[in-house]
Amino acid sequence: MPLLDGKGERRVSLWIGNRVRTAAHWDLPQNLACVVAGRRRFTLFPIEQIRNLYFGPVDFTLSGQPISLVDFIEPDLERHPRFAEAMQHAQVAELEPGDCLYMPSLCIHHVESLDPFSAMINFWWRDAPAYTEAPIFSLLHGLLTLRDLPPRERQAWRAVFDHYLFRPDGEDPMAHIPQDAQGLFATMTPEIKRRLKATLVSHLSR
């Protein structure tokens, strides 16, 4: 793929089929979708529209990814009224053979094959460090630790997560502590990764 620099690990998928629809979903990797045969229509949404797209559960899916439960062809706006708001933020791209579409990580997309026969190649990759696990596991852990806290406590923990993880001001929250004294919050190493996993496993095994 000449559009990519050739560095780093990537996965390549070939999809061959008839006229089908893929429910709206997101993917963790970045994605370059290249149409080989037939036309495809992509309807794209920013991840901030997740609330308006009525996603199903994360553990009961056909392909491992949560999907929108809205029928994009005949949406039931009585059952899914906020879908109309989501469509105000949608972008639609119709691809023909030879066209490629770049989708960043967590770009929500619905895909329709418009012809009786279609083929597409996807190139998937991540720019995150190799040690990075899928963030969905943090979400699942949060079901045990955060979701059902009293509202005030839940908001307080949001401030803690912002400080240590999301860092809206871009500052390192541990900058005032020497690297060798930062413990599990120090720059990631294989040893710190091992200790983090051991801590989590010990907790989750109780």
From TrEMBL:
Coiled coil: none annotated. It comes from the Bacteria. Residues 1-140 form the JmjC domain. InterPro entries: Cupin_8, JmjC_dom, RmlC-like_jellyroll. This is JmjC domain-containing protein. It comes from Brevundimonas aurantiaca.
